[in-house]
């Protein structure tokens, strides 16, 4: 009885699809992080100041702003959001073409 209810719960709330989406999201995040760190930033780094760009900080008295780490995460977010946007747009377009 409990097993049947549990299986119905999994099916109704599409838990397997959610788990797959979570795993794919984690994998795409790792891919985007690697792209930024290993491919994009080595091209941009010569244009910026010397030293590790992720460690760039602005210090004013006791205040320490780690803007390098922030910009790294911002670039990662923008790239990941762009990839998600493109994929979702293509999926929606494919669904519209399939229903006509």
Can you offer a commentary on this structure?
InterPro entries: MSC/AndL, MscL_channel. One of its GO terms (molecular function) is mechanosensitive monoatomic ion channel activity. The chain has 100 residues and is mainly alpha-helical. The chain has one domain (2-99): Non-ribosomal Peptide Synthetase Peptidyl Carrier Protein, Chain A (Orthogonal Bundle), CATH 1.10.1200.120. The protein has helices at residues 2-12, 15-44, 67-99; strands at 58-60, 63-65. A two-stranded antiparallel sheet has the order 1-2. A hairpin with a 2-residue loop joins strand 1 and strand 2. Helix 2 (15-44) packs across helix 3 (67-99). It is elongated.
How far is the first residue's CA from the last residue's CA? 42 Å
Number of strands: 2
**Given the helix and strand composition, which structural class is it?**
mainly alpha
Shape: elongated
Which structural traits does this protein have?
100 residues; mainly alpha; Non-ribosomal Peptide Synthetase Peptidyl Carrier Protein, Chain A; two-stranded antiparallel sheet; 2 strands; elongated; MscL_channel
How is this structure best summarized?
It is a multi-pass membrane protein. The chain is mostly helical and 100 residues long.
Helices and strands in order:
Layout: H1 2-12, H2 15-44, E1 58-60, E2 63-65, H3 67-99
Antiparallel strand pairs: 1-2
Helix pairs in contact: 2-3
């Amino acid at each position: 009885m409990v097993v049947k209810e549990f299986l119905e719960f999994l099916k109704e709330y599409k838990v397997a699809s959610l788990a797959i989406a979570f795993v794919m999201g984690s994998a795409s995040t790792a891919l985007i992080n690697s792209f930024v760190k290993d491919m994009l930033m080595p091209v941009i780094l010569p244009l910026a100041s010397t030293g590790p760009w992720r460690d760039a900080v602005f210090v004013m008295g006791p205040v320490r702003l780690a803007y390098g780490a922030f910009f790294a995460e911002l670039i990662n977010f923008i790239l990941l959001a762009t990839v998600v946007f493109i994929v979702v747009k293509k999926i929606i377009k494919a669904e519209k073409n399939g229903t006509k």
